[in-house]
Amino acid sequence: MTALDLSADLGLVAVGFVTLNICIGLLISVRYSPVRFWPLRPFDVFWLHRRTGYCTLAVTALHPLPLLLAARASFRVLDIALPLWSPSQPVENTMGAAALYLLVVVIITSIYRLRLGRHLWKRLHFLTYAVAAGLFIHGLLTNPKLDGSRIDPLDGEKVFVESCFGLIVIASILRARYRLRPRARKRVGATPPASIPVGPLE
């Protein structure tokens, strides 16, 4: 395994972790109960959500470091911290770096969410979607071999990123539909206006 291969593999692991983290977060947002549903026993879903977030941060930060050991890449530490001037694929790498920095913001604000207040913290927590978008765009547009060859969207690595993106889209749609159901029930069961007779006509 070369340094470039290691970097690519770490990137795929980061995509997997962020996908898992967002899906768990969506379950939490609809008040998923592990006692009523799988695994049918008490389980700290919030703990798993936090751990997958930390794993996403750690693997995302490690992902570009092997490039420093790749002679073909010619990356410096500055090129990783500020990849807009990196020797290869600067725009795509900047998207990945921006995702990492936004993830740091999400993690820090989550640690201090009680001080920030729920309203502000919740708004900042939506940056997780921007993190995922940055990682997905970076993963889809970059050439892990750095050889200038054309990107194949049906390549195994790209298909994995595309599948993770599709999973988040589907999970987000299901979450939105679930949250709309109580509102629909309230509208159906709402008390009619006073001008409309209610009950048996006398």
Query: What is the count of DSSP helices, taking H or I runs of 4+ residues?
Result: 8
Backbone structural class: mainly alpha
Radius of gyration: 22 Å
Number-wise, the strands total 0
Mean pLDDT: 88
Could you explain the architecture of this structure?
The chain is mostly helical and 202 residues long. The chain contains 8 helices and no strands. The chain has helices at residues 3-29, 45-62, 77-81, 90-111, 113-116, 118-125, 127-141, 156-189. It is globular. 22% of the residues are buried.
Q: What order do the helices and strands come in, and which of them pair?
A:
Layout: H1 3-29, H2 45-62, H3 77-81, H4 90-111, H5 113-116, H6 118-125, H7 127-141, H8 156-189
Helix pairs in contact: 1-2, 1-7, 1-8, 2-4, 4-7, 7-8
